[in-house]
Amino acid sequence: MPASTAGPEAQSPAERSEEKAFGLAGGPTGLELFHLPRTFGETMLLLFSSATFGFATLAARARDGRAAVLLLLLTFILGTGFVAMEVGEFRGMVAMGAGPDRSGFLSAFFTLVGTHGLHVSVGLICILVVVGQILFKGLTEPVGSRLFRVGLFWHFLDIVWIGIFSVVYLPGVL
After folding, report:
1. Which of 45, 49, 32 is closest to 109 using CA atoms?
2. Counting Cβ atoms within 10 Å, is residue 4 exposed (0-12), middle (13-18) or buried (19+)?
């Protein structure tokens, strides 16, 4: 439902009531949008993926390429689950009329969370590249260096997500 462009004095009581029901700027509030258990599930997927990446790095340092590959693939699965949940959340919000064009808050929300999701997707591609390099080149020094750098990127994504969760999701539902 598009928000009325008329000022408060020109709006009918029903339009003013509808605007209040959907929060500021004509859009729904975080309390109406966010389902904390779902977002907590997304957070756990990302944090566990960080742990599995850490174990993959330890396996690589121990020269156990098979374990490193398996742990990286598990990291990939967990990260893919995170992205899938994020896409599902976006689809649900758009389906209920809470897309990025609805309000400034939603525009900022979709931009922030979507940009993070894009970076997680890039990280997933990087994980697959490193897995391929371990399989075809072995755990050489350059491959180990790439694994370490992708790990830094992956762990930084977790830190950013904790910030997003703490600043965007939690205040929205509390």
Report:
1. 32
2. middle
Provide the domain count of the chain. 1
Which of 93, 122, 109, 121 lies closest to 165, judged by CA? 109
pTM of the model: 0.83
Q: What is the CATH number of the domain that holds 87?
A: 1.20.120.80
66-117 tens-digit pLDDT: 999 999 999 999 999 999 999 999 999 999 999 999 988 899 999 999 999 9
pLDDT tens figures, 39-69: 999 999 999 999 999 999 999 999 999 999 9
Residue 15 included in any domain: no
User: HSE (CB half, 13 Å, CA atoms) of 131?
Assistant: 18
